[in-house]
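Sharing a chain and its predicted structure for anyone who wants a worked example. Both blocks are below, sequence first, tokens second.
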Amino acid sequence: MSKKIIFATGNQDKMREIREIYGDLGYEILSMKEAGIDVDIVEDGETFEENALIKAKAIAACCDAIVFADDSGLEIDYLNKEPGVYSARYMGEDTSYDIKNANLIQRLDGVAKEDRTARFVCAIAAVFPDGSHKVVRGTIEGYIGWEPAGTNGFGYDPIFYVDEYGCSTAELSPEEKNKISHRGNALRMMKEELITYENSRG
């Protein structure tokens, strides 16, 4: 059996990131589209972990490979961890992130910096051919700024600021962002789980 990982995404940025981090393990890494898999998945979990596992299990049922799926989003403490698992669907799926970001900044109007704490969360689920699975969670802590800045990122990156760098994640280079990002953290954690799984099979 060839060493193959199918990542349940069509996002080329995510594919590039996983290929960089897992490049030394000798796996062929394919997106769903590259693997010829097209299934509609209803993500009705209440946590990032549940949604990631729902996706991974749905794809694993269609193939004989290791399947990874992720679910990620932004949690703002002052807003009861909104938008949370609804990050992609916040204010409607077709609403631009410029509008979403402006709305979140408006909802935090007058809120002091120490109360603007937030984090990006990424849960990654892996389903292995023997039916076992693992789920990990990576995070990056920061705060919501007073205005959007930067053009390198996407989604909520322009309003998410990291004290360590003194700027938004949209102002970081892709290399800097990968080092500290929630998805990079989760992918590195899952890499350890994958190595453990390989070793357990001898």
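Comments welcome. The chain has a mean pLDDT of 94.
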